[in-house]
Amino acid sequence: MVSNYDIVYIFMWVTPYGSTFFERAVRSLSKVLVYDFDDSIHIEQNKKTSLFLKIFKSNKKSNYLIENSDHVIISSPFHAEYCSNLNYLNKCTYIPCSLNTGRFTIKEKKVTREKIVIGWTGTFSSKVYLDTLREVFIELSKRYDYVLKVIGNFDYELNGVNLEVIEWKKKTEIADLHTFDIGVYPLIKDQWALGKGALKAMQYMAIGIPTVATNYGTNPQVIDNNENGILVDSSKEWLEKLEYLILNPNERERIGINARKKIVNYYSVKSLGHLYLEVFRESNNEPV
Predict the structure, then answer these.
(1) What's residue 48's pLDDT?
(2) Any stretches that span the bilayer, and where are they (predicted)?
């Protein structure tokens, strides 16, 4: 029974669809409620959605939890002002996304020379970001013999590019990521992307490969440009930086090593776990 616990923690929502009925029920039964969410689920997306989704998967659930929880945890600092103002106690804490670096292990260095693999991983909902690089990949294929590997839950086609599509599976996720030489994390510069915590970029960094990412949102906080990743602002820069990494294996190795260190030191479960404990203790009126 929910009421038996000192603290109830909710990530994203109680149920993904429907009204706020279950969220209200959990709130009424909880002594202390801590709400943690990712992305910009509290705002309406600027894209066409079905009538079903508009009715049954709106932002009402997340906004109710933001307003009525005893503490809100966010994975993007860009939501801090909104959440703090909406929350009835003005309690909001930014805790970056974190990774289990024991699971996301560093990729072993291969001696044999193979085709460079540029990789992207994500879901159908984030496919729109991958699509922004279609022309870049096509142009790059005219210059270099590389493989574009897409890990996701959807089919993908791109004429003129040596493309390999793999279905995401938890069992093979790490092994599949280890086939990447370069990871890409493109974003569209809009309000929705500001809520992203750069988790996919962190995954590439954790396995020790260079990441090329859009210079937007939380990406510049996670990636130190040209040190443990590369930030870009235009299609021209995407092409230039990917070409640079293809041609410079030593730079790929240097950036990848630095990237792994950054994640272990600042974005691992071990390095950030204490921040969650502080929120729980404060919310339960315990010494921090």
Answers:
(1) 45
(2) none
